[in-house]
Amino acid sequence: QSKEFNGHAWFRSASGRIYFGGTNGFNHFMPGAVRDDPDPPMVRIVRLGDDAGPIAPPVGDAPLRLPWPRNALNAEVAVLEFTAPERNTYRWRMRGHRDAWSTAAASVPIAMENVPAGTYLLEVEGINGDGTPGGVQAALRIAVVRPLWARPGTMVTASTAVIALAAWAWSRVARRRLRARLAESEREMRELRLRTRLARDIHDDVGSGLARMAALARSPKRLADSDARFEKLGAISSELLDNLRDVVWLNDPRQGTLDALLLHVRDHAQDLFEGTGARVCCTFPDPLPTRTIGGLFRRNLFLIAKEALHNVRKHADARRIMLHWEHDGERFAFMVSDDGHGVGGGPHGAGHGTANMGQRAADMGAVFERSGAPHGGTTVRVHGRTSCLDE
């Protein structure tokens, strides 16, 4: 009666006949009389092409050649069974490339993309509206030919070369980053060693000074010689104050320039020899260099100057002390000289001071020299490459 049926408009009679009502009447049938369509469909390829346009079909049994880069193919299929053509389907596979079967409606073409080089067989099988297959048919042989530069061996070689080049570039970048991280780690280790040494110096200098002050205060004789003890306590406290001031200065990041270091050495020398009659002379560049210096260089050069000046103060009996700095862009030199007794004059050269100064110079990559003049006096000289200033 039509393709439209009403909801719930069905009936099954006592004989087993089934009725379905619709807009133009009703349909009725005996279920046992319904048979599948026995007509197996055939399949034919009616058109070949790709995105660039149609492709002429091969002649006879010759394979269809797909030249590079046209290694894609669309094949329109006709399923030749007309009882219910809208329900016709087919399945296909391309042996050697896509061995699994794919099923599609008769109106959907076969689409193959990026077919690799080689020879293949396209097989199809039609299926009518009742699901009856028509048997597998060899529909088309396909051959894909690629030029030398597009063949797998060539592409593997080119890919290997590209990967090797990328790996080389990446390794250079990685090494550069690793060197930067290593330099940063070394800088942090230098800072850690510097802080450790500062903590040790504070413990040694301040701790020993406080212990001496405590011993003087607790001594049973403190009432018998109180004036002398007060003088000793004052001297020790002054020394502790100077040491603490130096420690604070060395840890102050605002003092990390060369001019601040030279001025601090000059001020320390003038304070040390104040009231002794000795004269401190400085031959520093004018204007003072303001370049940034590393914490290790700043600490070690100041402590070398401090040790040399204290040796002059304690042992040399000098009347004139010279502080000198010179820098020619590639090398630097710092000197502390005096006109006192000289290296051989008593205990001026004794103790661990000279060894400590040499070790401090070596720690920052510089050279330490200590020499005496023929007519008296001593010169302490530290020199090296400009790169030492960045340590």
End-to-end C-alpha gap: 101 Å
- The total of beta strands comes to 17
Q: Strand sequence of the main sheet, in spatial order?
A: 6-12-11-8-9
Count of helix runs: 5
- The structural class is alpha+beta
Poorly predicted regions are 344-350
Q: Averaging pLDDT over every residue, what do you get?
A: 83
Describe the fold and architecture.
This protein is α+β, with helices and mostly antiparallel strands and 391 residues long. It is built from 5 helices and 17 strands. The strands form 4 sheets. Strands 6-12-11-8-9 form a 5-stranded mixed beta sheet, with no helix packed on it. The termini are far apart.
Set out the fold topology.
Elements: E1 5-12, E2 18-22, E3 25-29, E4 42-50, E5 53-54, E6 64-67, E7 73-80, E8 89-95, E9 98-105, E10 110-112, E11 118-127, E12 137-145, H1 152-218, H2 226-251, H3 258-272, E13 279-283, H4 295-316, E14 320-327, E15 331-338, H5 353-363, E16 367-372, E17 378-385
Parallel strand pairs: 6-12, 13-14
Antiparallel strand pairs: 1-2, 2-3, 4-5, 4-7, 7-10, 8-9, 8-11, 11-12, 14-15, 15-17, 16-17
Helix pairs in contact: 1-2, 3-4, 4-5
Outline:
With 391 residues, this protein is α+β, with helices and mostly antiparallel strands.
Quick tags:
391 residues, alpha+beta, 5 helices, 17 strands
